[in-house]
Amino acid sequence: MPAIQVSRRLVGAGLLAAALASGCATTTAPLVPNAIEEVASVPEPEASEFIPVVRYGRYTLVELAPSAAQRDLLLQTIDVSMPEDARATVGDGLRHVLKRSGYQLCETAHAVTALYALPLPAAHLHLGPMTLRDALLTLAGPAWEVHADDRTRQVCFEQPGRDAGTEPVPGLPAAEAAQTFPLPPSISGGQP
User: Fold this and answer.
1) What dihedral angle (degrees, nearest 10) is formed by the CA atoms of 58, 59, 65, 70?
2) 176 in a structural domain
3) Mean pLDDT value of segment 161-187
4) How high is the mean pLDDT of the chain?
5) What are the alphabetically sorted keywords of the record (predicted)?
6) Residues pairing with 145 in the sheet
């Protein structure tokens, strides 16, 4: 029996040596001349833009560049709760949203002052988190577009498709311009 165990050990050691020897042996394929020319014609990648960073703490690196919201102030994220006033208007809400944004409200056109005089809906008493641009568009409603003058840092509103100097057509009653929606029976006071 000892001879069988010795032969098994020899066979196992031989297989191990063969496996190790085959793992170390490598063969290389001959290079094709055309492949060398193709590799040489590959353009080198462009140099990446250098962005300086500073280490804050042990694991945090911070880029030394302004964020997109710092470059374009209308992209800053806001979360605003309006002061609850029974007589608050859309203009009051717009001024409150713009209070610490770096912008001010322009008050030039007569049509825009009509927007500013509208009552502030209860759904607009809390806005955010959202971008400043989206908050302004939410307060103004879908009938208005926001335009920012970055030089004077003023925010103006215009109605799309209308000239700045045109006024609404006189003689049309306000009831015809407003859309009416029938109330469901549960809201109108009827029994279901």
Assistant:
1) -100
2) no
3) 46
4) 76
5) Signal
6) 158
